[in-house]
Write a structure and sequence with these properties.
The structure is a homopentamer. By secondary structure, chain A is an alpha+beta fold. Chain A contains eight helices and seven strands, in the order ββαβααββββααααα. Chain A is rod-shaped.
């Protein structure tokens, strides 16, 4: 982890000057313009920031008030604002929590990029994306020759890779649910289905604007990207599209699962009704016969026959068998 | 509140001349062309206007008859008409009523913008958007240097911010409904669902054309916006898109809630039918047995047995238990 | 009404020369090219025409055979054909019948427009759109200075305004149906729903191509429209879009009404089944008890008790009450 | 019918040279380049062809191997390939069979068009489209001055007109089905519905690519069409769109019919259930009463009353009437 | 099969130099630049490769690290990366397994194409597409004059043709299922339906990006394709679209089959309920009559009549017949 100091004595503003040979820390921001040479990169990383700190940075780097407001507001959809000599972009960070899968809470990584500098702001203290990329620069400082857009590429790649486990887990959950639905479509599975559907929809809503931002980077005419770097951003965009492919699959699986559930319910109703009909037919018929001999007519045949009981039982069993055979022929059994 | 006077003695036409130092009221409109200097802004605000007043203004500012007609008609969808030296735009104001949530009544704010002037017309007397922006100019008259489009930006920002509580309340209502549906899907919730669906659809229909107007402002090639101001309008547009994101969520939640309702109904029908089938099976079987012994045959076994009652009760309880066990095995209970 | 004469003695071809001062009738068509000066407008109105008359006109004005065929065929979808010195457009007229709402029969208004002339053809004798616009020219002949496209604008405005009552009545009908559905979803309402749905779909299919034609006029690059006239056509197009907004609402309401109907039916089935289950449970239980005491066992308790009747009635009432209480607890009552 | 000869003695290759004065047959293909003058048109018509014949023609006219392969393959979707001096297009012919409506079998008409020649290939012997257009040229040879694209226009017009009876019959069938569904929604109508749906879908799939080809012709920038001819192709395209309008209507009607069917089924189920519930309620109540008096208690009131029968019958009729009145009040009858 | 040798002694890297006269194997890669002349083609084919081998090739041909990473990763969606002097494309190979139809496992063919060379990489050992195209070059080495894009065309054609049997089998399966559904809609068919639906969706997801890549090739402005070759790629693209047409048909058939299933289930429920209602009505009525005469009233008519049995049987048969006649009249039988 880099040292947490800054030129103004406040915690959480960290500055790095990356030259071909090394990564230098604690650069004074006042005269960065004279300090940073061509092919060098100044990185300012701010975390858990206050409005005052952002204002100070805005003064140093000439940041636009709209972009500054965007950093200070609550969660906003990812967007990209271009200015004559720098651009601002708002990226979405998704935390990959192990448990409580159905809760997705996006946080933001604010990014300002100029000709020779990068400025990252995050309200979250642990900002693994930034730490990771800074480490890469520390190991290979010569990367600074590729300009600030290479840092942007590395950040984007890290973020996109971090979305994969989340959507893949959603995909697994949906697969599992579909299998469960095919076996026994119960109410719990249905609740789970609506839960996953909601998560998938949320993810899509959160990542959709992010994808649009990546598409802007991947376009050939984005002014801050040198033409030979364009393919890197195309690659990141392509992986982002793959994430949406997976989310499409999830949506398809869940919509199919609802169809499975509904037809299972219909089927079951049909079966219940068949059982009821068969039971009612057989028992009502038998009851009718017993009712017949329950009539108080004095003249009914066999009333006094000693074999009446045996004969009646045999007749009833035969009748029941005949009715069941008939239902089986109609494929109700 | 500004003084309500005008150069022709009629109430409700208020004129303001904003210079770098101050906001001056009651400017005579006849020779505004000579009065308003470069980097100054003339604002004419008209409320509860009559056709004659609009005609007068049209003469002073050279307004096009199509735009004038649009001001005088009833509610129309937001639209933007560009003319060589000014443009006209029709904005939607939504009142944020506390109660009677399901009623949405849009009103209009008509806006004419020239090189050095802004003209706002509203049939509603209290026009908080205009009051708010005028106050901002009164406090910081130097804003007039940014030209009339900055006033447009402030108005649009106010309006877009005023839509948020409305869609967020709709979002809350939909969430609440979904929770209610998952607990007990009754007819009242269903009526509520169709209600919210209608409100959401209305909102979408009202705000859709407004969004298109904002998109025109956010485009880089809108001629009245200086290139360095463009990012302000992109920002407003971006927030408008977020409103549509929320409305998409509402739509998704409501459509999911209908699915929840319908599957709950199906489930309940299934359960009712199972109860009926179980009851019918058990009671019909028992009734058959009683019917059997109700037959008037003189020769039936155990007819005269003193333990008949006890045995019969025991047999019937056992039979019932067996049938219930069988239903439980088929997962009907 | 203008005089019904023409230069060739046939009824129904009427010619008008509109100069700045007056509207002149009965212009000979043979040498119209020399007669009509700049800033003047020749209007030829033909009704209930025969192929020969159209051929004559085609010769006089150099009309293209494809456009002539389009006039002579039966109903065709609105379309616009541009030629080097004139264009042809096929407009839809909807009759606003009071009764028999569910029948929509579009008729056509054929329109040829050149640099200095307008040619309208209609198979229908009363052609209120043309009469109305001609009256406007008779009252204000100076309008001819705005060129033939102003006549087109007036015709389009008349037509679009004439669609409004039709779609608004459809909207009212749909609203009324939705209210009816919420109160008692019966078969008659359902038939009405499918009726309105069909009407809405027909309207959309008829007006869709008309809207596309209006969109072409509203585009900035349509060559026959001077740039300062463009806003008129944008205005007409905007009102046409509003008609489609209303039709979208109708579609939404009707689709919602079908959902209301279907869930009402499901609900009702559920209720019927609950009643059946309750009735069957109570009466089968009671019948079982009577059946029990109908068995011909000689040894049953209380058979000879003088209070049997009273006790039995009390027991049965208590049992029924208990079952009803149980059903109420399960929210079936 | 033209004579069936060719310059190489093989049946089925017919050649025509159309000059301003006449249509000449049996032109030798070897030196067509020198024979065909400007403003003349060479038409080669081949039917039931073999690969060798196509290869010969390919040599004479310099046809591309991809287009030749396309002629020799089985059915392919309509497509258009442009080459520097000619283009190839693959058109769909639909046979308008009287009976067996639900079978649609498209065949192909291959068309090569150069600056001065047209080449048509068809595996089907009777190729009415080609015969029809050749007859038109035989009657008016001067049409050749309009160039080969006029022949293409005549062919396309013939084909599009030949699609109309097919889609209109489908439209009629769908209308008829809807009426039938509204009267008695039975299983046979349902099978018919799925049949028509399939036919409509097939038609749409077959004609969709054909429409795209027509759209290419109607575009202003298709290089083989002179600008004054463009309107002819716009007209053909417009009629094709009308065919798709009709198919949209068919789809809407069929989807509405399925809704009608499903709600009819639901309705009927509801009615059946109501009948069952009413019957069960009435008869179970009556049976309970008879069961009550079937109990073998010695002390039951009125057991020995001589009016028991009459009173009982009266009581039961009254009870039944009361129950039916109650069901009618609940609108179940 | 070509010999499996390479210039660095490792198995699986095979090199071919195709000149106008012959196909030469085992070319040393170190100095390929000097070896390969204009109008000649160098083909390097690598299978079951290791990262080291790819790195070596990357050095020889100047491959971009993003493309190299794409070769070394697991399955990725097809994409195309253009570089100044070569391009990289990732193609999908579908194995056409006879059995286990519902499992689709795509593998990848990586393709680098320069001005004079083609590089194919496949992790699968048997790579029939590459073998097939190499054989074609071995037979006709002169094809090398058409440049490397012709090899790409032959590979794409092979791949697209290999997709056809897979989608056609899916089409057949869907047809078969639809027929089965129309005959007896059982649960097994439903499971099959969801299975096929999933396969169709998977195929669509796998082939969609492949189609987009083909569309890029078919566009006129793809820089590596000479204008006269463009039509080949249009042809391949057109066949790919046909594959999607078939998949659309499958989707339509399956969605129709689900409708068939659901309406069959509804129908069957209706029929079961009718049977139950008829049975219940008849038997309950008869039981009521027997119950009536089971009452212990001493005064009931005909109690002692000797013809009671006969009359009762006749009456009951007549009553049953009457009820059945009534049900038939209501079309329930």
């Amino acid at each position: 982890m880099p040292a947490r100091t800054s030129q103004r004595g406040k915690a959480m503003i960290k500055t790095y000057l990356i030259t071909k040979e090394q990564l230098q820390e604690d650069i004074p921001l006042e005269d960065w313009q004279s300090l940073v040479k061509d092919d060098e990169l100044l990185w300012v990383d701010v975390r858990a920031y206050t409005p005052e700190e952002v204002e100070t940075l805005a003064r140093h780097f000439g940041l636009h008030s709209v972009a500054v407001d965007s950093c200070l507001d609550g969660y906003r959809r990812p967007h990209l604002y271009e200015f004559p000599d720098h651009f601002y972009v708002n990226l979405t960070v998704l935390e990959n929590r192990k448990r409580k899968r159905t809760e997705i809470k996006p946080t933001e990584l604010h990014l300002f990029v100029g000709k020779k500098w990068v400025l990252t702001l995050s309200q979250q203290e642990p900002s693994p994306a930034v730490d990771e990329v800074l480490n890469e620069y520390r190991e290979t400082p010569a990367l600074c020759e590729r300009g600030p857009m290479h840092a942007v590429y590395l950040l984007l790649e890290y973020l996109v890779e971090s979305y994969f486990p989340i959507v893949e887990r959603l995909d697994d959950d949906a697969d599992e649910l579909e299998t469960a639905m095919l076996q026994h479509a119960d109410k719990r599975s249905l609740a789970r289905l609506f839960d996953l559907k909601r998560v998938g929809f949320e993810l899509r809503r959160i990542l959709g604007p992010q994808r649009d931002v990546l598409a802007t980077f991947a376009r050939r005419d984005f002014p801050f990207i040198r033409s030979e770097q364009n393919v890197y951003f195309q690659d990141v965009y392509n992986r982002m599209i793959r994430i949406f492919d997976i989310m499409d699959t999830v949506r398809e699986i869940l919509s199919g699962s609802l169809d499975i559930y509904l037809s299972a319910i219909s089927n079951r109703l049909n079966e219940v009704m068949k059982v009821l009909t068969i039971v009612a037919t057989v028992l009502m018929t038998l009851s009718f016969i017993t009712g017949f001999y329950g009539m108080n007519f004095t003249h009914l045949p066999w009333l006094r026959s000693p074999n009446a009981f045996r004969n009646m039982v045999i007749f009833m069993i035969a009748l029941t068998a005949a009715m069941l055979w008939w239902f089986r022929r109609r494929r109700w059994l």
